[in-house]
Amino acid sequence: MILREKDAYAGADERGYYGHKQEQDVAFHLRRSFGDSEQIRIIHDLVIEHGGERAQIDHLVIHPYGFIIIESKSIVGEVQVNAEGEWSRSYRGNWAGIPSPIRQAELQQDLLKALLRDNVEQLLGKLLGIQTQVGHREWRTLCAISSTAILHRDKMPKGVANKVMKTEFVAKKVREVVGNIFTEYLKGKPRFTLQEMENLGNFLLVHTAPLQAGSETVAQEKKAKQTPYAAPVSEPAPLSYAATPELDTANPSADNAAPASSLLTCKQCGEADHLTGMYGQYGYYVKCGSCKTNTSMKQTCPACGWKSVKISKDGPSYTANCQKCDHQYLVYREGEERA
Questions:
Q1: Are 257 and 291 in contact (CB under 8 A)?
Q2: DSSP per-residue string spanning 144-179
Q3: Which of 236, 288, 314, 337 has the greatest number of CB atoms lying within 10 Å of its CB?
Q4: For the chain, what are the domain ranges?
Q5: Closest by Cα among 214, 39, 43, 28 to 112
């Protein structure tokens, strides 16, 4: 069960985009394997704050016997870890050290454990009159690396190698860590009830909501300060999306009133009609009814040529927002065919 989906990318740089893309890929595999599970609860982009410290957890898995914190890492090239647990990666043939994502996840784990421990009475029940604790449950940290990376496992310490996997194996690793829920129960391991798992999930969702809102506000203010061509406060900012005739009835002859569907065609046969909006591992796309080819909705921004665009869906409409120039335009509308 997915308690909180992965946030959309709101940055403006390619490096941040690819890091976000890696997290999206991990979220996709977790959703595909555990989206309907009552025994597995997943929260993406969890921001926590406790004791004056703050951390953001890429992916948190809550299961009957404990917690799994997954750190996503976008890496193109090779990865090595020495006997001391120090990480290094290659980029275009040059090697450089990088912070350990495993250590980063461990620090996140410590803060999460402290937060839950200080609120345990409202989260967990008592056993024989004694308050149960989160510290006695299983706590694991994992790191999901881009599928294109080369992992030198033969040079990794065994403890690190067991925590690192490529993106497509993340769900398999989670199953391995959780184990057979019924078999583990017979072993007498401390176990969360479904009500306790719901308590934990709800508590963390309520806790992260204002922190997320604050982070988004700061990011928006920072972005506004970095945009020298922003519209004056005294004047309304002009609309920059391409409206369909139905949405722009006041000025049907305007240039931006051209059918938005003309921006999206099948990459294989050029078909502009008979397209069906879909969602998959790599985001929104259309499936061609003529040749069955899939075409991503993330087309190059027509205003600035930037490749990083965010697609959002509102009813039958799919809208693109350029992460560089903020140009918005309708790329596809379900149920419309050109005459």
A1: no
A2: EEPTTSEE-GGGS-HHHHTTEEEGGGHHHHHHHHH-
A3: 288
A4: 2-217, 255-333
A5: 43
